[in-house]
Design a protein that fits this description.
Layout lengths: L1 H20 L6 H15 L26 H22 L5 E3 L4 E3 L5 H5 L6 E2 H8 L4 H4 L7 H10 L3 H19 L9 E4 H17 L7 H21 L7 H7 L1 H30 L9 H9 L4 H35 L4 H13 L7 H5 L2 H13 L6 E6 L3 E2 L5 E2 L4 E4 L1 H5 L15 H5 L15 E4 L2 E4 L24 H18 E5 L10 E3 L2 E3 L5 E6 L9
Parallel strand pairs: 2-8
Antiparallel strand pairs: 1-2, 3-5, 4-14, 5-8, 6-7, 9-10, 11-14, 12-13
Keywords: Heme, Iron, Membrane, Metal-binding, Monooxygenase, Oxidoreductase, Transmembrane, Transmembrane helix
Protein name: Phoma betae P450 monooxygenase No.2
GO molecular function, one term: heme binding
Length: 550
Amino acid sequence: MESIAHNQTKLQVVTPVLRTLFASSTSILTTLFSCLLIFWLLSTKTTKHFPNVHGNRHFDAPIIGPSNALLARWHFFRHGPALIRRGYTQHRDSFFKVSGHDILVVPPKYLTDLAVLPPEKLSVNAAIVELFQRLPAITTVIADHSLQARMVASRLTPSLGAHVPRLQSQLRTHLPRELPATTSERWVSVPALALVRRLVHRGATAQFVAELAEDEAWLATAIAYSENSFAHSLLLRIFPDWAKPLAALCLPTGWGVGAALRRARRRLVPLIRERRRREAADVDYVRPDDLLQHLMDGGGMDDDDDDNATVQRLMVVYLGAGPSTMIAIVQVLLDLCAHPEYIEPLRQEAIQVLRRGRGGYSRQALADMKRLDSFMRETQRLSSPTGLGLHAIVRESVTLHDGVVLPEGAHIQMAVHEIGMDPDRVPNPAKFDGMRQYNSRKRPGQGNWHRKQPRLRFFSGLVLTRSIEYTTTSENNLYFGYGKVSCPGRFFADQNIKMIVSNILIRYRLRYAGGATERPKNTTLYDVVIPDLSTLIEFKLREDASEYNF
């Protein structure tokens, strides 16, 4: 009876989360029914009936939780963080498995081994394809190519500074529209996700497809694609690999992804052709400095198939940039409401930084918001987006530094959240200390927190303090990956989070609705951590907001 009650409670929590993530609210009941029906039809299967699709079976490591494949997945769905914590506590310096044989968790002592492996041996793309079970609307352009990742790293990231004025102008226009009834005398309650969803996707569009930054229909298409894709990946994870193709066909989230991609192609393919026509006809034509143009330039051929592939690559970047950035901003806002003592120091830092030099927002100004960097990193550490990271598939067997061999086909990850909560690595890890990273600069050498941390690095002409940057990857901060498996879009996310949060801090007061003071608990689905997306935050325009025209 306890198990049944627990499952019902979990579904009650998950249902509104998935409903929020779905582009179509009418799909939720059909989706849950499809999942439960397929799960019941498959429930008579046992581990011995599963084909050997992973190299993990060839690797001897303890399984944390049930070994039966279906029970293991269901148990991991319900208790993912607890299973990972138990595995890390018991096997900190050795391998273990969770979700049956699905995931081989690698101890952090092998981080350097993995960080230098080329994609021919350790493939992140293959892991993404597996995650989305080869859903054509997502994985077709990922399986054999990394063009979108290369363009983000080599073209979009170096040009981020040039986009800052446009993004700030956009925020100045649209943030008041998202909070239309807010005045200096009146608090207005807004669901946390509702506030940031459109701001994030609109900001992404300004950098991805400049012409469509104010196009409401396109905004809806981008949101539908990214949120349906995110929900689809979560729903598919409960099924065994041999059943995922059937499950993918039954889930309305997959239908939603396909429909959004078709709308995107109808809108963008003519735009791509018009850009090419204008460039061919006008010697003075200036190419737009946006991701779509970079993908067009990198794609090569001009035929219809390539145009469709260009659109799909762009939408895959929306998937990478949308849900993760939205959730990160919501988590920061929730922590600001839970720890209001940080609001004024962070606000004053932003104001002082923006008044320096020529004044206003710039890439350097954002880099100089060190206290905000520290606060964002602490939020990320305690409410990490996922308990596991560095997800990759071994494409060729790999021999590690001590002779351990990872077999071909192994699906590996690392317990990134537990590493960030390890008291041997992070002092007093359970405490929220928004200035932990900021103050750590004054205390070099404490524990392992500073080990192997270069003091400075250079990026696009900026001088950054590596030890506290939100985008820094290190042996203790693996949320964005590490080495060759680092997230190429983390600088884009950093810029958007800082711009939205700092604009809110400068112009608005904020607090939990109804006088609440306790932070709402996160929801976990497998190892994925999602804030309470229904939480209401109250905003009130500051009396001096008009004085800061940055």
